[in-house]
Write a structure and sequence with these properties.
about 75% helix, about 250 residues, 10 helices
Length: about 250
């Protein structure tokens, strides 16, 4: 399986040259918007953590969606996924390879974003790197598993970009809902964008020495388990054959 994963990794890396638009959309847009919302020189090192987590969330969520989920749907519908499966004979190897390759790319996106913010604002905050990468490494796979539910839907390749736009807009709009009740907060955190924002807040509180926040940790654990179950269910139901043709 390790040999199969390595071979597919090389294929996905070579395909990155065709994903330049997604790469720019995932990184350039949040970077420009950050400087629009926070003009150069107005960001202080002591309060940068208060508004940067939203941009980390955008980069991680949109990158996972654009790199790991939507291309797999497209691969399945155009027959590429089945061709890969005939080579490795294990659909899970392809899923794991997708995660390994693109989680590395997202790490680079976060590093570039944080470094750009620090250079233009003449500051050095190594905690930004630590917090953002921990957010990705600890919770990125959880978001990946939840979004796998999209893999069992019958989606035409030509509607993938429309789906992505609607999903991004809807999920980011829902983060304005912020109930006080513990259980309602858990329900709201099923939204992967809300989940990443809360996870970011929790990690930042630890990195900056504000406290461990056990309530948030409990909520994150419960929601993570739910997302993992969703991912396992979706992975078991995932069909390597094109679904649209079966409609």
């Amino acid at each position: 399986m390790a040999h199969d994963i390595l071979a597919i990794n090389k294929l996905f890396l070579s395909n990155l040259r065709y994903n330049k638009i997604s790469l720019m959309f995932n990184l350039l847009f949040p970077t420009l918007y950050f400087f629009y919302a926070n003009p150069v020189g107005n960001v202080k090192s002591q309060n940068i953590f208060s508004n940067i987590s939203f941009f980390w969330t955008y980069i991680i969520f949109v990158s996972i969606l654009n790199f790991m989920i939507l291309p797999v749907i497209n691969y399945r519908e155009n027959g590429t996924y089945k061709q890969l499966w005939l080579i490795v004979t294990n659909k899970n190897s392809i899923i794991v390879s997708t995660f390994i390759v693109y989680i590395t790319i997202i790490m680079l996106e976060l590093i570039i974003f944080n470094l750009t913010i620090m250079i233009f604002n003449h500051m050095w905050q190594s905690q930004l790197f630590i917090a953002s990468l921990l957010l990705l490494l600890i919770f990125g796979i959880v978001i990946y598993m939840e979004l796998m539910i999209l893999l069992i839907l019958k989606i035409k390749p030509e509607t993938i970009s429309i789906l992505a736009t609607i999903l991004i807009f809807a999920l980011f709009s829902l983060i304005t809902i912020n109930p006080d009740n513990f259980y309602l907060q858990i329900i709201c955190m099923i939204n992967p964008v809300q989940f990443l924002l809360v996870a970011s807040k929790w990690i930042i509180s630890i990195i900056t020495g504000q406290g461990f926040m056990p309530v948030l940790m409990c909520q994150l654990f419960i929601v993570s388990m739910i997302m993992v179950i969703i991912g396992i269910f979706a992975l078991k139901r995932f069909n390597i054959n094109p679904l649209v043709k079966q409609m």
